[in-house]
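Protein modeling request. Please complete all fields; requests missing the sequence field cannot be processed.
Requester role: graduate student
Desired output: 3D structure, token encoding
Chains: 1
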Amino acid sequence: MRIAVFDDDPGILEMIRVHLQPEHSCHFYVHATNLLKDFRHETFDLLIAGWHLRDRDGIEVVQRIREMTGQHLPILVITRRSEERDVVEALSRGADDYMVKPVRTGELAARVSALLRRSHPQAHSEQLVFGPYRFDAEQRNLTLRGELITLKNREYDLALFLFRNAGRLLSRSHLREAAWGDFSDSRSLDTHVSHLRTKLHLSPNNGYTLDAVYGTGYRLNVIVLTHSQS
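Delivered output (230 residues):
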């Protein structure tokens, strides 16, 4: 999963690098300006934020991010502030969870996993059937109404990621990291998306369309089929 980390505490940053980075793609920010700029055109699965930072209080940034992203992004605040009023303020201004330093590594990993499962259940599920589309994880192939669709490895990875995140706007960087790691360019992504549209016959008749969102990325839309269309 893709996590934005907004903190300037060396101990917290090192803990996240050691214990979360191997499993998740973590992006680190120490300045609010850079974080807010990226959130205008990037997408993340989780935000971890400190409270007191160099250029702006983290809790103000949490509130701003919540206003920008709506209710879907899980936010975890990590701070030394432990009074009840601090917890109440953080939760009321947009945080979903709250940890007090010193942070225990096992608890951090568990809380992150719990937030991701609750907020993105489909992305964590083992579901491989989406309407008329059926993925075979063992054979790494895809069928549409029983007909085999031949996909290359990256096309398969990208298609499954899109279906498991159907309805979500995903930034171009988010999609590239999911299917390629950090080793692809925008042109390669656009080419793969174009191929998937054609190969998967994405259309309202099959229950899904794939749209480009200018300045951000792509969204796989779920179309509710009426009885006459199904």
